[in-house]
């Protein structure tokens, strides 16, 4: 029976599920547990992301056998690599455009949110791209940092909603200090838990007492529960601001679209991944579709923010006569 915090079903049935990199290292570093790694996971030099996955994309450069075309050389998760690279260019353009909106409320906070999402993309490219050998310390380190940036991003998302309420003035120390301090706290805490799972540093917050269970409640909470909670709270707060405070309806369509795209991205990752992987004979999986939808959701959030903020300060409609001192 699956218990809260179990990663085994996800690592088996969801191709390219990033956090499985931590559990593979956990098993491969213990000689008494190596026998658990079977099938596609038996050889770390070719093993795809996951732990005994039903279907996975082999490490780049390894030979795979296709039922119709014979053997071929794996290019790794090439579709998601390309999508991550293009997404980085797209998000960089959004950061530049947000920076130019000098008078917009929450400009600094949104810019930092976009920067955090931008930082997750190269890590996603490396941790899901089948570029590094499973079980390597480098892959564990990159995965741990990736998890930290993801957790920090969702705190930044929630903080953007708090700033939009104007309970504190945007761009001031009162808004930015908790923004950065708690972003750093989420990053450091999640990265520590991830390192603890992958490397077994202390085992205080890492895996369960039985590593073969592939179970870590803290990691599950920080990488699955926390993003869901932060997204729901963000949507509720922004809905209140748009519909009640601003008495607008059009911007709400942007937020609804962003929420729909995010939900679809998760469905693509967890439901379509194995279908696409098996249909493409382990060439691609659902991760590239999930990345496209996630990036689109962030882009729509930018449009929503732009629709409820001013681009620049209005000129003074009653300019002071030069004869009167200011």
UniProtKB/TrEMBL annotation:
Annotated keywords: Membrane, Transmembrane, Transmembrane helix
Residue stretches in coiled coil: none
GO cellular component: endoplasmic reticulum membrane
Domain of life: Eukaryota
One Pfam family, short name: Chs7
Keyword Iron: no
GO terms under biological process: protein folding
Transmembrane regions: 78-98, 110-132, 138-164, 176-195, 225-246, 253-272, 284-305
InterPro entries, sorted: Chs7
Keyword Membrane belongs to the record: yes
An annotated Gene Ontology molecular function: unfolded protein binding
Protein name per UniProt: Chitin synthase export chaperone
């Amino acid at each position: 029976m699956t218990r809260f915090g179990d990663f085994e079903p996800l690592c088996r049935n969801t191709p390219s599920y990033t956090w499985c990199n931590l559990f593979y290292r956990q098993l491969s570093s213990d000689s008494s547990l190596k026998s658990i790694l079977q099938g596609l996971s038996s050889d770390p030099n070719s093993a795809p992301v996951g732990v005994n996955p039903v279907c996975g994309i082999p490490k780049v450069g390894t030979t795979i056998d296709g039922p119709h075309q014979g053997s071929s050389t794996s290019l790794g998760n090439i579709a998601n690599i390309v999508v991550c690279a293009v997404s980085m260019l797209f998000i960089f353009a959004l950061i530049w455009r947000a920076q130019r909106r000098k008078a917009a409320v929450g400009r600094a906070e949104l810019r930092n949110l976009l920067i955090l999402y931008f930082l997750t993309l190269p890590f996603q490219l490396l941790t899901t791209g089948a570029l590094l050998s499973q079980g390597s310390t480098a892959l564990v380190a990159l995965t741990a940092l990736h998890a930290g940036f993801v957790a920090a991003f969702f705190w930044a998302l929630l903080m953007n909603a708090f700033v939009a309420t104007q309970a504190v003035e945007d761009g001031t120390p009162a808004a930015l200090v908790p923004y950065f301090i708690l972003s750093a706290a989420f990053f450091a805490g999640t990265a520590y838990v991830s390192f603890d799972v992958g490397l077994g540093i202390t085992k205080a917050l890492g895996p369960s007492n039985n590593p073969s269970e592939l179970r870590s409640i803290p990691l599950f909470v920080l990488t699955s529960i926390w993003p869901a909670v932060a997204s729901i709270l963000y949507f509720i707060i922004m809905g209140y601001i748009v519909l009640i405070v601003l008495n607008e309806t059009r911007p709400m369509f942007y937020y609804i679209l962003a929420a729909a795209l995010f939900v679809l991205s998760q469905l693509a990752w967890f439901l379509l991944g194995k279908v696409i992987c098996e249909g493409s004979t382990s060439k691609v999986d659902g991760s590239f579709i999930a990345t496209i939808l996630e990036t689109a959701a962030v882009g729509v959030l930018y449009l929503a923010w732009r629709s409820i903020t001013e681009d620049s300060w209005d000129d003074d409609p009653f300019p002071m006569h030069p004869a009167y001192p200011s």
